[in-house]
Amino acid sequence: MMMISARGALAAIVCLLYTLAPVCAQDARKQAPPTFRVGVETVFVKVSVTDPLNRYVTGLGQEHFRVYEDKVEQTTVHFTQESAPISAGILFDISGSMKDNIHTARNSIVRFLEAGNPDDEFFLVDFNQSTTLVQNFTRHGSTIQNLIAFNRPKGRTALYDAVYVGLEKIREGANEKKALILITDGEDNSSRYSASEVREFARESDVQIYAIGEEGKLGYGRAEIQNIVAMTGGRAFFPNNFNELDYYIDLIHAELRNQYVLGYVPTNKTHDGKWRRIRVKLEPPEGLPKLIVHAKEGYYAPKN
Questions:
Q1: What does each C-alpha distance from 25 to 12, 35, 59 come to in angstroms?
Q2: Do 133 and 64 fall within a single domain?
Q3: Alpha carbon of residue 185 to chain centroid
Q4: Total domain count, the chain
Q5: Over 80: is that where the pLDDT of 8 sits?
Q6: What are phi and psi of 259, to 5 degrees?
Q7: Residue span of the structural domain in which 71 resides
Q8: Residues 98, 188: one domain?
Q9: Which of 301, 229, 228, 298 is nearest to 71 (CA)?
Q10: Least buried of 53, 193, 223, 282, by fewest C-beta within 10 Å?
Q11: Tell me: the pLDDT tens digits for 251-266?
Q12: What was the pLDDT predicted at 37?
Protein backbone atom coordinates (compact mmCIF):
# COMPACT_ATOMS: atom_id res chain seq x y z
CA MET A 1 0.00 0.00 0.00
CA MET A 2 1.22 3.52 -0.80
CA MET A 3 0.47 6.72 1.08
CA ILE A 4 0.62 10.19 -0.39
CA SER A 5 1.80 12.81 2.05
CA ALA A 6 -0.58 15.73 2.09
CA ARG A 7 -1.15 18.91 3.97
CA GLY A 8 -3.76 18.83 6.69
CA ALA A 9 -5.32 16.16 8.86
CA LEU A 10 -7.92 15.23 6.26
CA ALA A 11 -5.32 14.36 3.66
CA ALA A 12 -3.61 11.99 6.07
CA ILE A 13 -6.49 9.52 5.87
CA VAL A 14 -6.32 9.17 2.10
CA CYS A 15 -4.60 5.99 0.91
CA LEU A 16 -3.71 5.10 -2.65
CA LEU A 17 -4.60 1.45 -3.01
CA TYR A 18 -2.48 -0.82 -5.19
CA THR A 19 -4.08 -3.84 -6.81
CA LEU A 20 -5.25 -6.41 -4.27
CA ALA A 21 -3.75 -4.44 -1.37
CA PRO A 22 -5.89 -4.24 1.79
CA VAL A 23 -8.16 -1.26 2.25
CA CYS A 24 -6.99 1.54 4.53
CA ALA A 25 -8.20 1.10 8.08
CA GLN A 26 -11.21 3.29 8.66
CA ASP A 27 -14.56 3.32 10.40
CA ALA A 28 -16.56 2.01 7.45
CA ARG A 29 -20.28 1.86 8.00
CA LYS A 30 -21.59 -1.66 7.66
CA GLN A 31 -25.11 -1.15 6.43
CA ALA A 32 -25.72 -2.13 2.81
CA PRO A 33 -27.48 0.43 0.62
CA PRO A 34 -31.06 -0.45 -0.27
CA THR A 35 -31.85 -1.50 -3.80
CA PHE A 36 -33.05 1.22 -6.18
CA ARG A 37 -36.50 0.43 -7.48
CA VAL A 38 -39.03 2.33 -9.54
CA GLY A 39 -41.07 4.38 -7.11
CA VAL A 40 -38.33 4.56 -4.47
CA GLU A 41 -37.06 8.12 -4.33
CA THR A 42 -33.44 7.61 -3.24
CA VAL A 43 -30.93 7.24 -6.06
CA PHE A 44 -27.69 5.37 -5.29
CA VAL A 45 -24.51 5.96 -7.27
CA LYS A 46 -21.42 3.73 -7.07
CA VAL A 47 -18.26 5.82 -7.37
CA SER A 48 -14.62 4.83 -7.83
CA VAL A 49 -11.75 7.29 -7.44
CA THR A 50 -8.31 6.76 -8.97
CA ASP A 51 -5.09 8.71 -9.24
CA PRO A 52 -3.19 9.21 -12.54
CA LEU A 53 -1.39 5.87 -12.01
CA ASN A 54 -4.68 3.92 -11.77
CA ARG A 55 -4.33 3.42 -8.01
CA TYR A 56 -7.53 3.46 -5.99
CA VAL A 57 -8.10 6.24 -3.52
CA THR A 58 -9.79 5.27 -0.26
CA GLY A 59 -10.49 7.16 2.92
CA LEU A 60 -12.35 10.10 1.37
CA GLY A 61 -15.38 11.37 3.27
CA GLN A 62 -18.85 12.47 2.29
CA GLU A 63 -17.73 16.10 2.40
CA HIS A 64 -15.36 15.50 -0.52
CA PHE A 65 -18.13 14.64 -3.00
CA ARG A 66 -20.71 16.77 -4.82
CA VAL A 67 -23.52 15.13 -6.78
CA TYR A 68 -25.43 16.88 -9.56
CA GLU A 69 -28.55 15.72 -11.39
CA ASP A 70 -29.21 17.60 -14.63
CA LYS A 71 -26.76 20.28 -13.40
CA VAL A 72 -28.65 20.80 -10.13
CA GLU A 73 -26.67 19.98 -6.98
CA GLN A 74 -28.25 17.31 -4.79
CA THR A 75 -27.99 16.67 -1.04
CA THR A 76 -26.21 13.42 -0.20
CA VAL A 77 -28.19 11.49 2.41
CA HIS A 78 -26.30 8.18 2.25
CA PHE A 79 -22.56 7.54 2.12
CA THR A 80 -20.55 4.34 2.58
CA GLN A 81 -17.33 2.74 1.49
CA GLU A 82 -17.16 -0.95 2.20
CA SER A 83 -16.12 -4.21 0.60
CA ALA A 84 -19.53 -5.61 -0.29
CA PRO A 85 -20.21 -8.97 -2.01
CA ILE A 86 -20.74 -8.87 -5.77
CA SER A 87 -22.89 -10.56 -8.38
CA ALA A 88 -20.76 -10.78 -11.52
CA GLY A 89 -21.13 -12.20 -15.00
CA ILE A 90 -18.07 -13.35 -16.95
CA LEU A 91 -18.47 -12.76 -20.71
CA PHE A 92 -15.77 -14.88 -22.33
CA ASP A 93 -14.85 -14.58 -26.01
CA ILE A 94 -14.13 -18.05 -27.45
CA SER A 95 -14.13 -17.01 -31.12
CA GLY A 96 -11.37 -18.16 -33.49
CA SER A 97 -9.32 -14.99 -32.98
CA MET A 98 -8.80 -15.98 -29.32
CA LYS A 99 -6.75 -19.05 -30.28
CA ASP A 100 -3.42 -17.53 -29.19
CA ASN A 101 -4.86 -15.95 -26.05
CA ILE A 102 -7.28 -18.53 -24.71
CA HIS A 103 -4.90 -20.03 -22.14
CA THR A 104 -3.93 -16.62 -20.72
CA ALA A 105 -7.57 -15.55 -20.59
CA ARG A 106 -8.59 -18.71 -18.73
CA ASN A 107 -5.89 -18.16 -16.11
CA SER A 108 -7.00 -14.57 -15.56
CA ILE A 109 -10.62 -15.59 -15.09
CA VAL A 110 -9.50 -18.16 -12.51
CA ARG A 111 -7.48 -15.43 -10.80
CA PHE A 112 -10.57 -13.20 -10.58
CA LEU A 113 -12.74 -16.00 -9.20
CA GLU A 114 -10.19 -17.08 -6.61
CA ALA A 115 -9.96 -13.53 -5.26
CA GLY A 116 -13.69 -13.53 -4.42
CA ASN A 117 -15.35 -13.99 -1.06
CA PRO A 118 -17.92 -16.62 0.00
CA ASP A 119 -20.88 -14.29 -0.59
CA ASP A 120 -19.95 -13.49 -4.18
CA GLU A 121 -21.84 -15.16 -7.01
CA PHE A 122 -20.90 -15.58 -10.65
CA PHE A 123 -22.30 -16.73 -13.97
CA LEU A 124 -20.50 -17.54 -17.22
CA VAL A 125 -21.43 -16.63 -20.80
CA ASP A 126 -19.33 -17.96 -23.67
CA PHE A 127 -19.61 -16.35 -27.09
CA ASN A 128 -18.37 -16.74 -30.63
CA GLN A 129 -20.96 -16.40 -33.43
CA SER A 130 -23.47 -17.70 -30.89
CA THR A 131 -23.95 -16.83 -27.22
CA THR A 132 -24.40 -19.45 -24.52
CA LEU A 133 -25.18 -19.18 -20.82
CA VAL A 134 -22.78 -21.94 -19.77
CA GLN A 135 -23.26 -21.58 -16.01
CA ASN A 136 -26.08 -19.93 -14.09
CA PHE A 137 -25.36 -17.99 -10.88
CA THR A 138 -23.18 -19.99 -8.50
CA ARG A 139 -21.22 -19.16 -5.37
CA HIS A 140 -18.70 -21.86 -6.28
CA GLY A 141 -16.06 -20.30 -8.49
CA SER A 142 -14.50 -23.71 -8.98
CA THR A 143 -17.54 -24.72 -11.06
CA ILE A 144 -16.76 -22.01 -13.61
CA GLN A 145 -13.05 -22.82 -13.48
CA ASN A 146 -13.81 -26.39 -14.51
CA LEU A 147 -16.07 -25.28 -17.36
CA ILE A 148 -13.66 -22.84 -19.00
CA ALA A 149 -11.00 -25.55 -19.15
CA PHE A 150 -12.89 -27.14 -22.07
CA ASN A 151 -13.32 -24.08 -24.30
CA ARG A 152 -12.06 -24.48 -27.84
CA PRO A 153 -11.82 -21.17 -29.76
CA LYS A 154 -13.58 -21.09 -33.13
CA GLY A 155 -16.03 -19.08 -35.19
CA ARG A 156 -16.92 -15.39 -35.43
CA THR A 157 -17.64 -12.81 -32.70
CA ALA A 158 -21.13 -11.87 -31.45
CA LEU A 159 -19.88 -9.44 -28.83
CA TYR A 160 -23.00 -7.26 -28.58
CA ASP A 161 -25.22 -10.30 -28.20
CA ALA A 162 -23.05 -11.49 -25.31
CA VAL A 163 -23.33 -8.15 -23.50
CA TYR A 164 -27.10 -8.13 -24.05
CA VAL A 165 -27.45 -11.64 -22.60
CA GLY A 166 -25.26 -10.62 -19.68
CA LEU A 167 -27.41 -7.55 -18.98
CA GLU A 168 -30.53 -9.71 -18.94
CA LYS A 169 -29.00 -12.29 -16.61
CA ILE A 170 -27.37 -9.92 -14.15
CA ARG A 171 -30.80 -8.63 -13.12
CA GLU A 172 -31.28 -11.91 -11.26
CA GLY A 173 -28.24 -11.31 -9.07
CA ALA A 174 -28.80 -11.47 -5.32
CA ASN A 175 -26.20 -8.85 -4.35
CA GLU A 176 -26.63 -5.09 -4.57
CA LYS A 177 -23.31 -4.62 -6.36
CA LYS A 178 -23.51 -6.03 -9.90
CA ALA A 179 -20.89 -6.16 -12.65
CA LEU A 180 -20.16 -7.70 -16.03
CA ILE A 181 -16.58 -8.61 -16.97
CA LEU A 182 -16.03 -8.78 -20.73
CA ILE A 183 -12.86 -10.38 -22.10
CA THR A 184 -12.38 -10.20 -25.86
CA ASP A 185 -9.69 -9.69 -28.48
CA GLY A 186 -11.84 -8.82 -31.46
CA GLU A 187 -14.60 -6.54 -32.64
CA ASP A 188 -18.18 -7.64 -33.24
CA ASN A 189 -18.94 -9.24 -36.61
CA SER A 190 -21.86 -11.56 -35.91
CA SER A 191 -24.45 -10.05 -33.51
CA ARG A 192 -28.16 -9.69 -34.13
CA TYR A 193 -28.32 -6.86 -31.57
CA SER A 194 -26.81 -3.54 -32.60
CA ALA A 195 -24.42 -1.42 -30.57
CA SER A 196 -27.15 1.21 -30.06
CA GLU A 197 -29.56 -1.41 -28.69
CA VAL A 198 -26.94 -2.63 -26.23
CA ARG A 199 -26.14 0.94 -25.17
CA GLU A 200 -29.79 1.65 -24.46
CA PHE A 201 -30.17 -1.56 -22.45
CA ALA A 202 -27.03 -0.69 -20.47
CA ARG A 203 -28.48 2.74 -19.65
CA GLU A 204 -31.52 1.05 -18.12
CA SER A 205 -29.49 -1.42 -16.08
CA ASP A 206 -28.00 -0.87 -12.63
CA VAL A 207 -24.78 -2.71 -13.45
CA GLN A 208 -21.19 -1.74 -14.10
CA ILE A 209 -19.53 -3.17 -17.19
CA TYR A 210 -15.78 -3.72 -17.35
CA ALA A 211 -14.08 -4.71 -20.59
CA ILE A 212 -10.60 -5.87 -21.49
CA GLY A 213 -9.80 -5.94 -25.21
CA GLU A 214 -6.51 -6.37 -27.00
CA GLU A 215 -5.10 -3.18 -28.50
CA GLY A 216 -4.72 -3.29 -32.27
CA LYS A 217 -7.42 -5.89 -32.94
CA LEU A 218 -10.57 -3.96 -32.10
CA GLY A 219 -10.63 -1.20 -34.73
CA TYR A 220 -13.92 0.70 -34.55
CA GLY A 221 -15.06 -1.78 -31.89
CA ARG A 222 -12.89 -0.05 -29.31
CA ALA A 223 -14.99 3.14 -29.41
CA GLU A 224 -18.23 1.15 -29.20
CA ILE A 225 -17.02 -0.77 -26.16
CA GLN A 226 -15.92 2.45 -24.49
CA ASN A 227 -19.31 4.06 -25.12
CA ILE A 228 -21.19 1.13 -23.59
CA VAL A 229 -18.88 0.82 -20.60
CA ALA A 230 -18.63 4.53 -19.76
CA MET A 231 -22.34 5.07 -19.22
CA THR A 232 -22.42 2.32 -16.58
CA GLY A 233 -19.59 3.72 -14.45
CA GLY A 234 -17.33 0.81 -15.40
CA ARG A 235 -14.11 1.01 -17.38
CA ALA A 236 -12.47 -0.39 -20.49
CA PHE A 237 -8.82 -1.43 -20.73
CA PHE A 238 -6.88 -2.12 -23.92
CA PRO A 239 -3.48 -3.72 -23.21
CA ASN A 240 -0.99 -4.20 -26.03
CA ASN A 241 -1.27 -7.95 -25.58
CA PHE A 242 -2.95 -10.43 -23.26
CA ASN A 243 0.24 -11.02 -21.29
CA GLU A 244 -0.91 -7.97 -19.31
CA LEU A 245 -4.36 -9.43 -18.64
CA ASP A 246 -3.73 -10.38 -15.00
CA TYR A 247 -2.82 -6.79 -14.17
CA TYR A 248 -6.14 -5.47 -15.50
CA ILE A 249 -8.17 -8.26 -13.94
CA ASP A 250 -6.63 -7.28 -10.61
CA LEU A 251 -7.50 -3.63 -11.24
CA ILE A 252 -11.13 -4.52 -11.86
CA HIS A 253 -11.29 -6.68 -8.74
CA ALA A 254 -9.77 -3.91 -6.61
CA GLU A 255 -12.19 -1.33 -7.98
CA LEU A 256 -15.24 -3.46 -7.27
CA ARG A 257 -14.04 -3.96 -3.69
CA ASN A 258 -13.26 -0.32 -2.99
CA GLN A 259 -16.13 1.83 -4.20
CA TYR A 260 -18.01 4.60 -2.51
CA VAL A 261 -21.81 4.52 -2.56
CA LEU A 262 -23.57 7.90 -2.56
CA GLY A 263 -27.32 8.24 -2.13
CA TYR A 264 -29.50 11.28 -2.69
CA VAL A 265 -33.20 12.15 -2.93
CA PRO A 266 -33.70 13.97 -6.27
CA THR A 267 -34.97 17.52 -6.12
CA ASN A 268 -36.89 16.77 -9.32
CA LYS A 269 -39.91 14.82 -8.06
CA THR A 270 -41.54 14.37 -11.46
CA HIS A 271 -42.19 10.72 -12.38
CA ASP A 272 -41.93 11.17 -16.13
CA GLY A 273 -39.68 8.25 -17.07
CA LYS A 274 -37.10 10.60 -18.60
CA TRP A 275 -33.33 10.24 -18.56
CA ARG A 276 -31.63 12.14 -15.72
CA ARG A 277 -27.94 12.88 -16.14
CA ILE A 278 -25.68 12.42 -13.10
CA ARG A 279 -22.34 14.09 -12.49
CA VAL A 280 -20.17 13.40 -9.45
CA LYS A 281 -17.62 16.09 -8.67
CA LEU A 282 -14.72 15.59 -6.27
CA GLU A 283 -13.30 18.18 -3.88
CA PRO A 284 -10.37 16.25 -2.37
CA PRO A 285 -8.10 17.30 0.51
CA GLU A 286 -5.19 19.55 -0.38
CA GLY A 287 -1.90 18.05 -1.46
CA LEU A 288 -3.20 15.21 -3.63
CA PRO A 289 -2.59 14.80 -7.37
CA LYS A 290 -5.45 15.22 -9.81
CA LEU A 291 -7.96 12.45 -9.10
CA ILE A 292 -10.36 10.81 -11.53
CA VAL A 293 -13.97 9.98 -10.68
CA HIS A 294 -15.77 7.01 -12.28
CA ALA A 295 -19.57 6.84 -11.92
CA LYS A 296 -22.61 5.99 -14.02
CA GLU A 297 -23.84 8.73 -16.33
CA GLY A 298 -27.47 8.75 -15.24
CA TYR A 299 -30.71 6.85 -14.78
CA TYR A 300 -34.30 6.79 -15.97
CA ALA A 301 -36.74 8.40 -13.57
CA PRO A 302 -39.70 6.36 -12.34
CA LYS A 303 -42.83 6.69 -14.45
CA ASN A 304 -46.37 6.80 -13.12
A1: 12, 27, 8
A2: no
A3: 19
A4: 2
A5: no
A6: -105, 150
A7: 40-81+275-299
A8: yes
A9: 298
A10: 53
A11: 999 999 889 999 999 9
A12: 40
